[in-house]
Amino acid sequence: MPDPVFSKIAIIGAGLIGASIARAAAEYGAAGSVVLYDMDADVRTRARTIGLGEVTDTLEAAVAEADCVFLCVPVGALATVAANVVPAMTSGTILTDVGSVKGEAAAALTAAGDGRIHLIPGHPIAGTEQSGPDAGFATLFRDAWHILTPSDDTSADYLAAVERLTLFWQRLGAKVETMDVARHDRVLAITSHLPHLIAFNIVATAFDMETVEQGEVVKYSAGGFRDFTRIAASDPVMWRDVFLTNKDAVLECLGRFSEDLAALQRAIRWGDGDMLMREFTRARTIRKAIIDAGQDSGAINFGRNPNVEPDTE
Amino acid sequence: MPDPVFSKIAIIGAGLIGASIARAAAEYGAAGSVVLYDMDADVRTRARTIGLGEVTDTLEAAVAEADCVFLCVPVGALATVAANVVPAMTSGTILTDVGSVKGEAAAALTAAGDGRIHLIPGHPIAGTEQSGPDAGFATLFRDAWHILTPSDDTSADYLAAVERLTLFWQRLGAKVETMDVARHDRVLAITSHLPHLIAFNIVATAFDMETVEQGEVVKYSAGGFRDFTRIAASDPVMWRDVFLTNKDAVLECLGRFSEDLAALQRAIRWGDGDMLMREFTRARTIRKAIIDAGQDSGAINFGRNPNVEPDTE
Ligand SMILES: NC(=O)c1ccc[n+]([C@@H]2O[C@H](COP(=O)([O-])OP(=O)(O)OC[C@H]3O[C@@H](n4cnc5c(N)ncnc54)[C@H](OP(=O)(O)O)[C@@H]3O)[C@@H](O)[C@H]2O)c1
Ligand SMILES: NC(=O)c1ccc[n+]([C@@H]2O[C@H](COP(=O)([O-])OP(=O)(O)OC[C@H]3O[C@@H](n4cnc5c(N)ncnc54)[C@H](OP(=O)(O)O)[C@@H]3O)[C@@H](O)[C@H]2O)c1
Fold it and tell me: Which part of the chain is the Prephenate/arogenate dehydrogenase domain (chains A, B) (predicted)?
């Protein structure tokens, strides 16, 4: 195994993402030691029990002497956590995060910054619908994109810090890209935030239809609905924060979505089969592009065979 | 292996569903012989090459002497195909289908009926986003629901026919339910038709955003979008027919969906975090009900581990 990229990392927030970073850093030798802190005492106890790394009872103890601090808390908590973390950090070390909205994250980090620390916001395009320390696993970031949104600081020190953080994520198996904050938030609004909102919404709609019983919705969910419920099972706090902090980009996508949906609705009402064929055929082409780009598997009946259990490590 | 349920079955339409019935009937010994016909000569050639069963060049030859005929064509083609099939069938045998809209299917079968044949519409709640003869596999129906919508004929012969068809699907591993046509179409509108429409729509919206490049949408699709593209890759002809023939139930669901979405949109615009939390938390409960009902797996990172290939038999 090559030398660790950081001799000590601190992870604040031991949920799905924090626990996955802890496991991956250990598994791939990316950090000499891993120290975690979580606001929630139960989470700390659980993190100790399942052996995620050293777990401290204060934020300050976790952060002390760390070369790099990873904030893995909901986006809405970033400002407070960053403000508490920075004073306890050693000069010249790195503060990064994994928040799904980079505008808010960058603002939170910048506000907390005192000029001694390298601030490098980041976002792994990897996750599951589960949350909490038990949900973490070492291979989560393998072959996934990791987006960094560095500031425009061009000092040699800052660029070296970005390079080191890049190396860390690569060691975890990720492919690293840099991007500006606004672009990130626009791209993720359509590829992640809108899909989640739609999934949350359709689940609510299904359960409020008085003409169909809830038991029937559950029973016959294999016709498509169950795929939406998987996405809609994601952490409510995390997603509330995403929508509250990426409001403009999400509302823009939502406006487009509703406009397009109204056109499909009209085609159905007036029996315009040609328009439906055109739209549905286009969707198939796009699916092919995603499989060709290695972003999904084209295997038949993907993961749904009852005799196959995915390897969860 | 127990005795076959039917000594000969005929399958009209050798696509995903037809090919899966052919493979399953052979694998589980549910039919003594399987004969297929497809309108498309290329499909017939392919069906022969991959050994789905005997393949005939005319509809009449396939149907002759069959105990049960399965119409596995798009819903919009059912009326024509049924009208051609019935005169070639032996008296007292069964005509069924697998169409996703039972109102239309029942009407098509009834119109074609000449009083000699038992008409029993059906719908397997199982499928994938793929189509064509190569997409079929024997385990598709295992542990899946199969809905039959028998007529109100209470003659002993008809009831015996329904029982035999039930036995056939059970032999393929399915759990069989009966339901009335209108209820089926209402339940499926929300559990299957609306989810597909939404998936088709979001894919179109994503690709029409000028503010984001298509390449970026593909690249970062793992954030949620890719799950929608899987559903949206489904056969355009099949889905056009579904929306044209289950119009009222789909429009009803769509109206509700848009109303609910407008409320979420308003909550985002005005920063109403409590309302978002409430809705998102509810969605999580529903997901749990689906996993408890055995309709999905709760395994972490379901099927997405690059090192796991689902067993496609
Ligand atoms: N889930 C995904 O798919 C995904 C993907 C990419 C990025 N992200 C981002 O990753 C971050 C974490 O998400 P996650 O999925 O790992 O969530 P999670 O499993 O819910 O974990 C978050 C953890 O942070 C703790 N926490 C909350 N506020 C805190 C604070 N002020 N100080 C210390 N700890 C605090 C939570 O404790 P409690 O027990 O009190 O809640 C929880 O243990 C979010 O910013 C999210 O946007 C998530
Ligand atoms: N896919 C699913 O997930 C699913 C699930 C449950 C039920 N269903 C229902 O199953 C039925 C078949 O769907 P599928 O997914 O199997 O579609 P598919 O893979 O596209 O197969 C349909 C086959 O029927 C052929 N066909 C079309 N019109 C015909 C005609 N007039 N006479 C004879 N053959 C004809 C098609 O030939 P071409 O090559 O010319 O198109 C194609 O080979 C549909 O009614 C659908 O609603 C589908």
Answer: 7-298
